[in-house]
Fold each of these.
Amino acid sequence: MIRSALMTVMTAAAQKAGRGLKRDLGEIENLQVSVKGPGDFVTAADKRAEKVLFEELSRARPGYGFVMEEGGTVEGTDKSHTWHIDPLDGTTNFLHGLPLFAISIALVREDQIVAGLIFNPGTDEMYVTEKGQGAFLNATRMRVAARRKLSDSLIACGIPPLARAKHHPLFKQEFAALLATSGNLRRLGSAALDLAAVAAGRFDGYWERNIQSWDVTAGALMVREAGGFVSTADGTDDIVHGGSILAGNEYIQREMLAAIKGIG
Ligand code: 2AM
Ligand code: CA
């Protein structure tokens, strides 16, 4: 468990926003069958959750800046601290009534990720981490899986949707490379939950391109604090600005990187 004042603030904000999302998920089923569909409702739910997080975190830590999926960048008076927030990661799942979505909150200090939280209100799983303090799923300390061979491993990926089909050619090449080398592949639809699952030792690895800081900052620290390795898909270290992610234990992360090296 992490019992710091910072984590108390983060978990309280996530639980408050999560209650709203859970209620809204219940409403989706009704809208699924309407002609208009749940699209606008989901956008509104997303924005409501972000507003709650923004208000709660601003009140508890006045002056910190924000980088948010919906609201964009809000400069703070404290230039060294920035929250990276995704109020609803896994929007497509949520839209379809699948309880595979998460709130993701990371605190970045001087370009270093110092704290992360991923909360799935659909399953009540709360993942928390602070730099140097380990990573926890609810009250249990997490540890990445111990498998040493990619050929024995279950690897998660992200698939660009049709709306971003220009990314399909590269995705297909990398997918083919991992299909040929890993035990099997999965796709959950939430970058935050994919990384949380790597930290928890459920997935052996995960990679995805075309993602944003709010999708992966919390999860990246989570994996590292659970003993894993994280880089961009190109093998660089800048997770906050890199736009892609590749994670696993030290063996699997290295083997995955080698499998896709030179493709991108
Ligand atoms: P979202 O659900 O918040 O949109 C799925 O492949 C992952 O990619 C999810 O974490 C999803 O976040 C993210 N994602 C989907 N579309 C995106 C976009 N247009 N820009 C950035 N990230 C996106
Ligand atoms: Ca997201």
Note: The helical segments are 5-32, 39-60, 91-95, 168-179, 191-199, 213-225, 239-242, 250-260.
Amino acid sequence: MLLAIDTSCDETALSLFDEHDYFTGKRVADCLVSEVVSSQVDLHAEYGGVVPELAAREHLVNFPHLLGALLKPINGDIEAISSVAVTRGPGLNGCLLVGLCFGKGLALGARIPLVLLNHIEGHLFGAMFSADFNAFEYPALALIVSGGHTLLVNVKGFRQYEIIAQTRDDAAGEAFDKCASLIGLGYPGGPKLSKLAQSGDATKYRLPIGLNKDNTSFSFSGLKTAVYRLVQDLDSEVENEQVKADVCASVENAIVVALIEKTKAGLNAVGAKQLFLCGGVAANATLRKELKNLAEEFSCRLIFPPIKYCTDNASMMGALALEILKQDKDGYESIRNMMRNGVYRGTKFREDAAGAKPRFPLTEVSN
Ligand code: KG4
Ligand code: ZN
């Protein structure tokens, strides 16, 4: 069994996979034995955002209980774990450290391989859970949009990435959340804003589309300022349900148009066979619909994860780890045997000396 761990932000997430089933050709979703995600939303809501120190402490408290719950389907048999995969970054340093320390402890104690992973790359591999996914076809284009990241990536081959565009300031999810907060929708307001937007008129208020001529960058901070001014001008009118819905629809439109326009330019440049939409913002229905139309225009297939694998989870990290191990199956199995016999002295699949990487560009991942 492979144990996957992600504690990069405020979700404590663990998943367990049958490694052998994956190596013998089963789809990743059919190899999933168990998964748990513990959200800390309530803890951070009163501060209006994630408090890193509190999140790290909460991971430390949650982890042992969650591991117990995760192992229930295999009767708590911790010895069935034959490898551990942990997110090394990017993310909040203290949070990453908790997951890494647990992962290292488990791997060292049981003398089993340890694989360290990039969280953004994990978001991409979350798409493997889509019923539309069979295999990666290169080149592919990936739009990875979450609360912390906004990236348009040319996926040239297995683990070969070229960043086409990224944000200069706020991430798309952050823009949803901050605008939602300005409109008075609380935290985290992205999903609430997109729900209200469904009954609003997106043409009602003209809001800026960030950097609409620059296809190598996104920018959402200007939108935030414009929404701040709009809410001030509207004053108490913003309390009116229809006005609120119209503002939400206009905000959503400004974010979605920026994402679509740059993705379109990316598709023109790359000639992609597949278009991936991943990360928390991939849960947005308008974005999905618009990207689907765009993909059809370019005769490429749009693939996005099921909603529960859009936001942070450990199953997407497990999918990535399984694929890494499968690509080097013989090497991995011989290293695992050497470890079991206490004779392995290498560092591959044994990155004990590696620290957390709060900043971990996608282009720095390596086999
Ligand atoms: O991937 P994720 O769980 O965490 C990060 O790694 O950042 O993404 C969370 C982000 C939040 O900013 C949240 O507001 C946004 O995804 N989000 C949405 C929707 N659902 C989640 N944004 C717009 N529309 C949604 N339906
Ligand atoms: Zn994430």
Note: The pocket of KG4 (ligand 1) is lined by residues 9, 146-148, 173-174, 176-177, 188, 190-191, 194, 279-281, 283-284, 311-312 (CB under 6 Å).
Amino acid sequence: MNKSALITGVTGQDGAYLAKLLLEKGYRVHGLVARRSTDTRWRLRELGIEREINYLDGDLADACSVQRALLKACPDEVYNLGAQSFVGSSWDQPVTTGIVDGLGVTHMLEAIRQFSPQSRFYQASTSEMFGLIQAERQDESTPFYPRSPYGVAKLYGHWITVNYRESFGLHASSGILFNHESPLRGIEFVTRKVTDAVARIKLGKQRELRLGNIDAKRDWGFAGDYVEAMWLMLQQEQADDYVVATGVTTTVRDMCRIAFEYVELNYEDHVVIDPAFFRPAEVEVLLGNPGKAERMLGWTPKTSLESLIRMMVDADLVRVAKE
Ligand code: NAP
Ligand code: GDD
């Protein structure tokens, strides 16, 4: 019998790549989708899998809807990727962020505990929980110090996952993933904002790019590599927590330099610093140590930042040219 999986956040960047990976492995894929007034399936369309998913109505803020979806799907594996995932918006919508990214995890775990305790569970935790970093390279034992309502909500989601594993013996794992990007990244995140602008500037449709703190440093990887780590976590006999990262950190400034240079432009001619994009509290630097994932899961990142940015610029050049 083929395995089945329920993915919350299936219309997001990671949800789309994970759905593709699981379909390729022969899974039946169910996707929890919250009602929206606009079309949110563009990523699944771009990957050519829109029609291969069984969509189930549900919102992580609504415990009953989550229970219903779980009962309909009867999944072997549950990947909880749904979230208000934009750090910047979490100061404007702190309560929604807390309900969806924090309590939403409990809704999912409670549903599993009551109705499907054999289902394995993956929680999309984040390096944003390290925030004001307490060690130069962050790993599974580094203390957390979140710096945004998003980071605080995700920290609750992380600990409730650990707690349900320890309290009820659920196979519940938390992946502490560092930033990962792709051509399917939302336009509000800095890498995609940059690659989209690079394409527009190159094609004469835009002149400047307004950014905030370009001295911030991130450990950026490719989303397509990272969803493999999620799947590997749920194939282990014991559930556990893992850092997933590249072990390389780069400033936003250097990421811009790479993107502009790829199309023979100089970022300094186009980037304008705009305080409107500064955050009330910043995570200045993130640098992960993926040693445990390498040792226990046999996972290593395959894509360099340079090739990732080139892939994103190429995709945006095609999109912008078609407009
Ligand atoms: P994303 O592209 O923003 O996708 C988020 C998904 O969550 C979308 O499908 C969205 O649906 C869905 N969603 C939002 N609110 C919901 C709700 N109330 N109920 C059900 N679904 C809801 O994010 P991503 O980059 O794929 O990230 C996936 C997960 O990993 C998130 O939990 C994120 O916080 C976490 N994470 C991401 C990174 C990263 O660098 N990408 C790193 C660490 C952790 P709509 O399409 O309808 O809005
Ligand atoms: N978005 C954005 N827009 N960020 C900017 C800008 C800008 O104009 N200018 C500078 N930055 C800086 C931010 O201040 C931050 O330091 C860095 O670029 C990265 O910002 P984002 O791309 O928005 O990502 P993030 O690190 O805040 O959050 C992402 O990674 C987390 C994992 O560490 C998201 O994917 C989260 O969901 C994820 O958990």
Note: The chain is about 40% helix and 15% strand.
